[in-house]
Structure formats: structure tokens, C-alpha cells
Design brief:
Number of domains: 1
CATH class: Alpha Beta
CATH topology: Lambda Exonuclease, Chain A
Largest sheet: 6 strands, mixed
Number of helices: 11
Helix content: 40-55%
Structural class: alpha/beta
Order of helices and strands: EHHHHHHHEEEHEEHHH
Strand content: 15-25%
Distance between the termini: 32 Å
């Protein structure tokens, strides 16, 4: 009997959803650590309550992507959510989840009161350091959110019908439901990563390429530092 396939890091799925070629270069160069400024944005996701009453001066000292007035307005709207109390005081923080196909971090897991099979489903969240689109979430974040929800569902042995994506530098939170469309996008990305051999084909999206850290070396034959040091 063959062994099950190795689980894939959820961060790899998100990269592949953005561009499979980018994932190839990140793997080649062992480049998986997020930029240091990401931590400052992530901290905001655990401070919504205090930031609502912060002064303009204090807000300008933080890693916000909008003006203090806009940020307060966004947080006021966020506070109207039914799950706001659980967002600011989550049951679990930065928890590593292991699913059937993937593993990775849920930055928060929101739990509702109740016991047994009739208890409300838990909700994982993914914190994004970037900007939200006008509506919904970006494709790679949708795949990441579905992956985190599926990993949590596998661990809990129950359905997890949705996940949240937080954009704390804007004070915005978006819901990703595990619809047929969203689960299909996740499965396609999972297949892409598992079947990847060699350098993937280029994508035809100038906007993505312009924002990619590998845009100046994409297609060139370079060696990682690890390889040059004889460690790879």
C-alpha cells in the first residue's frame, strides 16, 4: 500500500496561487521567511480595541496604510461584526495546523460557546500585511484561507465552512466561505504544487511580475547562496 503524499506548506500554496514560477525560485533559494516589516503589521491584528481610541500621533507611529481618520472609521465598522469580540480575544493565536494535504499557521482561531456536535464551527483567520482589494480577497489569500480552514477541519474532525482574512494595516476583515468555486481553486493549486517539475512556464500578468521580488532574475540561471557555499 502506497504512503499518502507529503503535506504541503500552506505558504507554498499561496505562492503558487500567485505564480508557480515564483514558488520555484523561492524553493530554490530557500527564501520562505517573510520580510521583517510583516511582524509590525501582524501586531495590529491583536490591538484593534486599543487602536480605536488611539490618538492621531500614536496611529501615525504604527504601520498603517491609511490615515488615522480612515483607520478609526474602518475599526468602527469592524466592531459591528458579530464575531468582533472573538477577533480581539481569539481562543488560539499563531497555531500550527496539520491537515490531510497541507500544514501551516492560523494566526487566530475563533471559538464560539457551546459543546458537542451542535457547537458552532471554529473559524480560522489569516493575517495579511498587504492591501485588500475593493471587494473580497486576492486569489492567493483565498487559497490560503481555504487551506487553513481545511487543515483545521481535519484536526477537529468537523466541517469548517469559512475562514477570515484580516488586513490589519487597514482595519478590514473579509470572509472567505468554502464554496465550490473556492475549494476548486484550492484543489487546482494543490495539484500544481504536487505536479511541479522543473521551472514552471511564465505567467502572462505584467502587474504580478512588476510586484515580484524575482522579476529581475526570472529566467536567469543563478545559484542560491546555500549552493555556492556547498551546503545545498
Amino acid at each position: 500500500m502506497s504512503s499518502p503524499p507529503e503535506t504541503i506548506p500552506i505558504s507554498h500554496l499561496a505562492r503558487a496561487a500567485y505564480c508557480p514560477r515564483q514558488l520555484y525560485y523561492a524553493r530554490r533559494d530557500d527564501d520562505h521567511a517573510p520580510p521583517s516589516e510583516v511582524d509590525a503589521v501582524h501586531e495590529l491584528a491583536f490591538e484593534y480595541d486599543g487602536l480605536q481610541t488611539a490618538t492621531d500621533r500614536r496611529l501615525r507611529e504604527r504601520s498603517l496604510a491609511v490615515s488615522p481618520a480612515t483607520y478609526r472609521s474602518n475599526l468602527a465598522a469592524l466592531a459591528e461584526r458579530d464575531d468582533y469580540g472573538r477577533l480581539v480575544d481569539p481562543a488560539l493565536r499563531n497555531v500550527v495546523l496539520y491537515g490531510r494535504d497541507c500544514h501551516g499557521v492560523a494566526h487566530k482561531v475563533l471559538e464560539s460557546a457551546g459543546d458537542g456536535e451542535d457547537a458552532p464551527s471554529p473559524t480560522p483567520t489569516v493575517v495579511s500585511p498587504g492591501d485588500p482589494p475593493p471587494r473580497g480577497v486576492w486569489g492567493p489569500q483565498r487559497v490560503r484561507a481555504v487551506a487553513v480552514a481545511k487543515a483545521l477541519a481535519w484536526e477537529r474532525g468537523r466541517e469548517v465552512p469559512r475562514a477570515l482574512v484580516e488586513y490589519p494595516s487597514h482595519g478590514v476583515v473579509r470572509t472567505v466561505r468554502l464554496t465550490t468555486r473556492n475549494k476548486s481553486a484550492y484543489r487546482r493549486t494543490l495539484w500544481t504544487v504536487r505536479s511541479m517539475q522543473g521551472v514552471p512556464s511564465r505567467i502572462r500578468d505584467e502587474a504580478k511580475c512588476d510586484a515580484c521580488d524575482y522579476r529581475t532574475t526570472c529566467g536567469t540561471k543563478t545559484r542560491s547562496l546555500k549552493t555556492m557555499l556547498g551546503l545545498g
